[in-house]
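Possible regression after last week's pipeline update?

I re-ran a chain I had predicted before the update to compare outputs. Posting the input and the new output here so someone can diff against the archived version. Not blocking, just want to make sure nothing changed silently.
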Amino acid sequence: MRRRFGNRIAFGLVTVTLMATVLVGCTSSNLGGFGTYGNNRLEVAEITNPGSYTADSALAEARAHFRNNDFGHSAALYKRAAELAPKNAEAYVGLGASYDRLGRFDLSDRVYSALYEISGATAQYYNNVGYSYMLRGNLTAALTNFRKAQRLDPDNIVVANNIQILKDAARSRA
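New output (post-update):
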């Protein structure tokens, strides 16, 4: 019983640390509240005038929503950007990260599969997939993907930070 409680604390610490880690421009950890369109920030939102967006304007607005932890709207806008520019890797990276933060791993898995078709085995791809696994609590799969990212881009600070988070979590579990 005590061991299980300790693992929950360790996982909680990893989660808190993850929230503080900058992945795709996230700078705050306020996850509650409502978005500007009245939708819950933790559910995929619907945009009211999808035809009014260009790929660039949808990306710009999606980035702003993501930075403000309004992942429901960032997901909707990154999705719109991907519809308008189906080969734009940034749209898929942001969409996958938004779905991850919403806990919609079923959707993020599909997005990362599409991202792989567009950009291939890049350090960013493996880092984001690793981060997704880390959010799910699958630290082994996370580390495997972070190591692949590190081999492709050994000087990437985000990847190095994510690996350090996993090492710290492993130490606290021991």
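Follow-up from reviewer: compared with the archived run. Residues 9 and 48 are 41 Å apart (CA to CA). Marking as no regression found.
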